[in-house]
Write a structure and sequence with these properties.
Elements lengths: L5 H10 L19 E2 L20 E6 L5 E4 H5 L4 E8 L4 E12 H8 L7 E6 L4 E5 H4 L5 E6 L2 E2 L9 E3 L12 E7 L6 H4 L16
Parallel strand pairs: 1-5, 2-11
Antiparallel strand pairs: 2-3, 4-5, 5-8, 6-7, 6-11, 8-9, 8-10
């Protein structure tokens, strides 16, 4: 069995170019260097995690007044929202009009009450994956903790039972199999950021690499 090498993957991606030309009619929706796909590719660091909803928990901790652990039933009891957004992967595909259902990140913020000095959030996943985001980016109406995709429960390949969806940034910033949100005063790199991915990840500015 071959050993996964993150550094080699990053180097290959730096040299890659879109596999097909972008549609000129979609130039206002597809960022530079991207192409549209109709299918939802499965890209994962490490093994796909299989967590039963009834066993899933998410811990919200760090610089918050009210640390919280949510169970599956407690998550479902929160106000649900539905969004339809375009998503963009750093590997250069974009998928338009993806439909998600879940809970607004800002709804969780109301419950935990971040400290004034909290400016960043580290996402922690089952399986050990991490990725960092500015708190400001997470507080938009687009960002949800998702448990449904296209009207069905989110399957494990795409991060089920629960994942982050932050569609304004490259999709590596939307952690699959989400199990923790850590509020921080200072930014620090997550998994891919340690290997050269950008600390922010805006697709319209092509913030692929640091």
């Amino acid at each position: 069995m071959s050993i996964f090498d993150p550094l080699k993957r990053v180097e290959r991606l730096k040299k890659a170019r879109p596999g097909r030309e972008a549609d000129a009619e979609l130039e206002n929706r597809i960022p530079p260097g991207q192409y549209e796909t109709k299918k939802f590719p499965v890209l994962t660091y490490g093994d796909t995690q299989h967590i039963k909803p009834e066993e899933w928990k998410m811990h919200i901790f760090g610089l918050v007044e009210n640390p919280l652990t949510l169970s599956w039933q407690e998550l479902l009891a929160l106000p649900a929202v539905s969004i339809r957004r375009d998503i963009h992967c750093v590997t250069r595909w974009s998928m338009l009009d993806s439909h998600w259902e879940g809970v607004l990140f800002s709804e969780l913020v109301k419950k935990v009450r971040p400290a004034p000095e909290a400016r960043f959030v580290m996402q922690h996943s089952y399986g050990g994956y991490t990725t960092n985001l500015p708190l400001e980016d997470l507080l938009t109406e687009d960002v949800i903790i998702a448990y449904q995709y296209e009207g069905k429960p989110l399957d494990p390949d795409h991060g089920g039972p629960v994942r982050m969806v932050a569609p304004q940034l490259y999709f590596w910033k939307s952690a699959k199999w989400l199990k923790g949100l850590e509020f921080m005063a200072e930014d620090r790199p997550g998994f891919w950021e340690q290997y050269g991915y950008h600390m922010h990840g805006d697709p319209w500015s092509e913030e692929r690499f640091g």
